[in-house]
């Protein structure tokens, strides 16, 4: 029988260490299991205590009766007393919840002045924190709606104290934007802007906010006025403070979409005391984020100034940033001004055609078709850029203020980078991209364009400029064919005020066309001379057009 050799001493030590480790793991596992069990028991007990302390179940039963329209006002106020009796001690905490926030809103709506005062007193310590939550901001909005003058000032003051922190959060940014655009008056908006400008420098904030905010005029540039309040050595420090504030927001899209932030950026770019190099650097940082700025007045003005001050690289980045929202920018009340500025100031027409013009062709059909609908059609703003491609920078169609903003800003030649290529050449190169589609749409929807009276410049001007383009290129027969197509459905008879205004606008545009293209307009119009004669006594434009037709 062969004898098996016993393990060596080293092997026996390894086995003993392994056994010890396994024993320690078992003991540690048992201890952790007991700890988890104890924590679970404590958590269960806490949940039970919270369930006993949480009055939401009883409150929601009262809310179901409170929300009914058939419930009398006296009964509603009695129910509100019962609700407040249960919620009042911790109302600032409960108001952040979805269910309780609805209860507080309806209590403010139907409560008496005494009950609203009780709600205000319970929520006042939490005014700075409530707007940071998704549902708490709805409660604060209801407080604004039913607040007294003193309470309203307290709400604005509480908002100012946490303005920057709120603007950096998703829900808080929505609330700041709502207050700034719809609730705050001019003085309060200026005060909020000052807090935003000076937030990053405590010394300047303590020096200027509170002592100087009453001296700042709401109509003037706030940064220029603040720079006038401090000595020359502090100017660079103040500008750097504002710059740091903008840099903190660059990576936060929701905050960057805020109207208050747009005013901050416009204040820096329009300041006469901020160095030109500082404005250029700021523009380079914001160019790729232009899609967050176009939808407000000062945001679009800031973009227009960036385009005028920037170089070719900045203009290219700005145009490309609109790729995902291009149709919204073209049809926006303020965004179309940015499109027009890019078309007017950029030499690279190939880039503009690829990024701004050609991608819009699929949208034009729907825009022109919707022009005859009631309301404010999107083509009202989109057709301005098309009018520029056809007519150029003319004062005939563009308001003097609008003209100055786009083509003649108050800047020296050292500051702006004016395009080098001939303006007409640039326009013709971009127009060639969309000319076939545009001309076909004008031919199809010409009548609705000529009858539209809701905007300035009139959409009928688009038809006039297209006819001029045809005449310049020797295609006068297209004008005659187009006008014959228009006259088949002309609004000779009007049944209400709306159609009467449409007819008046149509006759006005035809009168303009007859002066520019008499040989193409009068021959088709003679077939409708009798219908025109019926309007001579009631419409001054019809009388003038009928007289011109007879003398032709």
Automatic annotation (TrEMBL):
Entry keyword Amino-acid biosynthesis: no
Cellular component terms (Gene Ontology): nucleolus
Signal peptide start and end residues: none
InterPro entries from the UniProt entry: ARM-like, ARM-type_fold, CPL_dom, PUM-HD, PUM3, Pumilio_RNA-bd_rpt
Domain named PUM-HD: residues: 58-457
Residue windows of the Pumilio repeats: 122-157
Superkingdom of origin: Eukaryota
One term of GO molecular function: mRNA binding
TM ranges: none
Keywords: Repeat, RNA-binding
Residue segments, region Disordered: 1-23
Gene Ontology biological-process entries: regulation of translation
The protein's name in its UniProt record: PUM-HD domain-containing protein
Species annotation: Cyanidioschyzon merolae (strain NIES-3377 / 10D)
């Amino acid at each position: 029988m062969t004898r098996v050799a016993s393990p060596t001493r080293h092997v026996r030590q390894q086995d003993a260490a392994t056994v010890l480790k396994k024993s320690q793991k078992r003991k540690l596992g048992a201890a952790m299991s007991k700890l988890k069990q104890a924590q679970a028991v404590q958590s269960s007990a806490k949940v039970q205590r919270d369930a006993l302390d949480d009055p939401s179940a009883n409150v929601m039963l009262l809310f179901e009766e409170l929300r009914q329209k058939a419930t009398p006002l006296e009964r509603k106020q009695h129910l509100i007393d019962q609700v407040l009796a249960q919620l009042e001690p911790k109302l600032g905490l409960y108001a952040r919840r979805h269910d309780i926030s609805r209860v507080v809103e309806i209590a403010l709506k139907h409560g008496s002045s005494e009950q609203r005062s009780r709600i205000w007193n319970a929520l006042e310590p939490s005014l700075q924190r409530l707007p940071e939550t998704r549902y708490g901001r709805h409660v604060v909005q209801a407080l604004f709606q039913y607040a007294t003058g003193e309470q309203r000032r307290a709400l604005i003051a509480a908002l100012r104290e946490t303005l920057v922190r709120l603007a950096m959060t998703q829900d808080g940014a929505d609330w700041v934007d709502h207050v700034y655009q719809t609730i705050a008056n001019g003085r309060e908006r200026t005060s909020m802007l000052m807090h935003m400008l000076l937030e990053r420098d405590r010394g300047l904030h303590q020096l200027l906010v509170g002592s100087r905010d009453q001296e700042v005029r709401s109509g003037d540039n706030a940064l220029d006025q603040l720079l006038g309040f401090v000595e020359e050595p502090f100017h660079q420090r103040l500008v750097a403070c504002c710059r740091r504030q903008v840099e903190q927001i660059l990576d936060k899209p929701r905050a960057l979409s805020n109207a208050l932030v747009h005013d901050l950026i416009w204040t820096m770019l329009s300041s006469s005391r901020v160095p030109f190099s500082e404005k250029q650097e700021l523009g380079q940082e914001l160019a790729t984020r232009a899609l967050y700025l176009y939808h407000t007045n000062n945001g679009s003005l800031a973009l227009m100034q960036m385009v005028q001050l920037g170089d070719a690289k900045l203009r290219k980045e700005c145009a490309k940033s609109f790729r995902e929202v291009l149709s919204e920018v073209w049809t926006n009340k303020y965004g179309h001004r940015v499109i027009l500025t890019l078309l007017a100031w950029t030499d690279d027409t190939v880039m503009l055609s690829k990024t701004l013009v050609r991608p819009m062709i699929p949208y034009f059909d729907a825009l022109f078709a919707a022009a005859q609908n009631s309301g404010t059609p999107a083509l009202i703003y989109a057709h301005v850029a098309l009018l520029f491609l056809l007519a150029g920078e003319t004062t005939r169609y563009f308001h003097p203020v609008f003209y100055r903003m786009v083509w003649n800003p108050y800047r020296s030649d050292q500051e702006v980078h004016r395009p080098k290529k001939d303006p007409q050449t640039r326009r013709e190169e971009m127009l060639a991209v969309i000319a076939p589609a545009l001309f076909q749409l004008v031919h199809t929807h010409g009548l609705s364009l000529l009858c539209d009276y809701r905007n300035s410049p009139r959409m009928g001007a688009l038809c006039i400029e297209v006819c001029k383009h045809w005449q310049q290129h020797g295609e006068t027969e297209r004008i005659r064919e187009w006008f014959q197509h228009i006259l088949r459905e002309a609004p000779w008879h009007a049944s209400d005020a709306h159609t009467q205004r449409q007819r008046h606008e149509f006759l006005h545009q035809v009168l303009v066309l007859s002066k520019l293209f008499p040989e193409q307009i009068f021959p088709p119009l003679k077939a409708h001379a009798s219908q025109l004669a019926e309007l001579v006594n009631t419409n001054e434009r019809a009388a003038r057009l009928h007289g011109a037709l007879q003398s032709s």
